[in-house]
From TrEMBL:
Native source organism of the sequence: Microbacterium salsuginis
Origin organism lineage: Bacteria, Bacillati, Actinomycetota, Actinomycetes, Micrococcales
Cross-referenced Gene3D superfamilies: ABC transporter involved in vitamin B12 uptake, BtuC (1.10.3470.10)
Transmembrane parts of this sequence: 25-47, 78-95, 107-126, 133-153, 165-185, 206-228, 253-282, 294-317, 323-341
Family, similarity comment: Belongs to the binding-protein-dependent transport system permease family. FecCD subfamily.
Protein name: Iron ABC transporter permease
Keyword list, A-Z: Cell membrane, Membrane, Transmembrane, Transmembrane helix, Transport
Length: 349
């Protein structure tokens, strides 16, 4: 059995494949407007609130006072939240499509944990320091973790059911993060550097890091978007997709590779942030249907909005300190995960 062969459990939400173009376009424009408003709020709110005039002055590059300087400092943080949120949401959407598993998500399936472990091993034992090395290690770790979790989840009767994959992913994530802690604890210098990175956050964003990771995320996004039509065919079942002329294995392999690149690179730059790839695709299907040519870009917008909103909440509710976005998304995502399991009644063990 191929590591990318999937359970036949259908995705939730019986939304039709096609929605009226006017409806989809309306929701897309609404999503863009909400995202733009959240970006302005992300720049304006934090440990120190700034006025709208200061926001405009900061966007123009002026740093004449503390408020304007704060705006300039928050810009890379906001952009990184946009990129990481969009990447994780698209990765989750693609994983749910190619595995036909409603519980698929980079965090739940252990992919983010595998990427984190690979980065820490590279730093601790191989002296890895360059940002490109971080991304390569994270993507490789994500790929190995994906294969490992699927292999474990496929054991026993029934193959890789959604719940077995989720349990295998949760166990693998716990093991990966335990290994990360075991490696970091005796190394105070590395442990301090990655103390917040382990939780998952965008607080250390810089333009240099964004310039490095943006092209990699763009490649992963382009791969997923290019295979959106193939994902629609997979939703009809392997036999029907093959009958329509779709190369099922190739479609799964390439689309899953794009998702792994997105998840690995996002983890390398922002740490393991869970549940974005689970929450967003399900919510977006309710609005724009299951056509992945619309669902993928809409998921990217919604994922970016979710992570920017989580970052704003983390900064506002704990002033003058802040709560990392990984904690906020976990608080939102854990109840949603339980709801999905109960709604789908995925009880096979």
């Amino acid at each position: 059995m191929s590591v990318l062969q999937t359970t036949q459990t259908p995705l939730p939400d019986a939304a039709p494949l096609r929605r009226p173009a006017a409806v989809r376009l309306t929701w897309l424009l609404v999503g863009i407007a909400v995202l733009a408003a959240l970006c302005v709020a992300s720049i304006a709110f934090g440990a120190r609130d700034v006025s709208f005039d200061d926001v405009l002055a900061g966007l123009a590059g002026r740093t004449g006072d503390v408020s304007q300087a704060a705006v300039v400092a928050r810009l890379p943080r906001t952009v990184l939240a946009l990129l990481v949120g969009a990447a994780l949401a698209m990765a989750g959407t693609a994983m749910q499509a190619v595995t036909r598993n409603p519980l698929a998500d980079p965090g739940i399936l252990g992919i983010s944990g595998g990427a984190a472990l690979a980065v820490v091993i590279g730093i601790a034992f191989f002296g890895m320091s360059g940002p490109y090395a971080f991304i390569v290690a994270a993507v490789a770790g994500a790929a190995v973790a994906a294969v490992f979790v699927y292999a474990v989840g496929s054991l026993g009767r029934g193959g890789a059911t959604p719940l077995k994959l989720a349990l295998a992913g949760a166990a693998a994530t716990a093991a990966f993060m335990s290994l990360v802690s075991a490696i970091l604890l005796p190394r105070a210098d590395i442990a301090e550097m990655f103390r917040f990175w382990q939780i998952g956050g965008v607080g250390g964003a810089t333009w240099d890091r964004i310039v490095v990771v943006a092209p990699v995320l763009a490649v992963g996004a382009i791969v997923c978007l290019a295979w959106a039509r193939g994902m629609n065919s997979l939703a009809l079942g392997d036999d029907v997709a093959a009958g329509l002329g779709e190369h099922v294995f190739r479609t799964r392999l390439v689309a899953f590779a794009g998702a792994v690149v997105l998840a690995g690179a996002a983890t390398a730059i922002a740490g393991p942030i869970a549940f974005v790839g689970l929450i967003v695709p399900h919510m977006c299907r309710l609005l724009v249907g299951t056509d992945h040519r619309w669902l993928l870009p809409f998921s990217a917008i919604a994922g970016a909005a979710l992570l920017v909103a989580a970052d704003i909440v983390g900064r506002v509710i704990a002033r003058p300190e802040e709560i990392e976005v990984g904690i906020i998304t976990a608080l939102i995502g854990a109840p949603f995960f339980i709801w999905i399991v109960r709604r789908q009644k995925v009880r096979e063990l």
